[in-house]
Amino acid sequence: MKCTVRWIASAGMAFLGESGSGHTTMMDGAPEGGGRNLAPRPMEMILMGTGGCTAYDVVHILKKSRADVLDCEVSLDAERAAEDPKVFERIHFHFKVSGRGLQAKQVERAVNLSHEKYCSASIMLAKTATITHSFEIIEA
User: What's the domain of life for this entry (predicted)?
Assistant: First the structure.
């Protein structure tokens, strides 16, 4: 996996990231750090990417088990260290999974498998952060 991140000097502290698959995304800093608050911060991108990684896993696992899953949303609430390096120290994932006839055991299994085996991002972040998760099922 490769990517390129380029500073956009004319935009203060904005950066353009391009993934190896050819997709681009902007990142920006906070105004107090020279940014203009025009895009997510790099650490926010890490948190959002982790949410995408685990949500992908949960949906994929549920679909493989033939569950009638219709929607999945995960909210992440994180705390970072006060001192540099300001690593994530705590992250809570809350899943809202919608579908027809979903069973709590199958959703719990999908969430656990993601966090214990498949989600590279959350497993990596668990090296510095305490990871917790919860879920709710919404009947469609």
Answer: Bacteria
| Gyration radius of the chain's alpha carbons | 17
pTM over 0.90: yes
**How many residues make up the chain in this entry?**
140
CA-CA distance, 26 to 45, in Å (whole number)? 10
What range does the domain containing 15 cover?
Answer: 3-33
User: How far, in whole angstroms, is CA 23 from its chain's centroid?
Assistant: 17
pLDDT tens digits, residue range 39-86? 999 999 999 999 999 999 999 999 999 999 999 999 999 999 999 999
Domain of residue 58, CATH code? 3.30.300.20
CA distance 82 to 25: 27
Same domain, 86 and 120: yes
Residues 6+ positions from 92 with CB-CB distance below 8 Å:
76, 77, 78, 131, 132, 133, 134
d(CA 1, CA 106): 32
- Phi/psi for 105 (5° steps) reads -60, -40
